[in-house]
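User: Show me a protein chain along with its predicted structure.
Assistant: Here is one chain, sequence first, then structure tokens.
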Amino acid sequence: MAPITEAISDNENANIVGENATHSTKYKPIKAVKVETGLGITQINKLSDTNWVNWWEHILQMLTFLKVKDYPLRLVPKLDPSQHPDSANAWTHNDSYALHLISLNLSESQKIHIS
């Protein structure tokens, strides 16, 4: 996996907020990904008490395919909305989409861990 500085290299310095605020990186605009709605694309066997390894592999594959895997892993830094409002909004969209996909693929018994 590429380091953050490789993943978002460009010419302009970024204004990053949150836990990545101390990183010195370059700024590359973030674009909102297209939301997919097909069950065959967005749903896998739900996480239960017994299928963590298979679920983890499948959720990573799905999030990779939908281009949002790096958001829940916090590999894409959140940009300062006062400096980069469009990219900050796109980051929020992409992060929310990834978290929504994860929550869709949790059994009821596992959802207690995220509420």
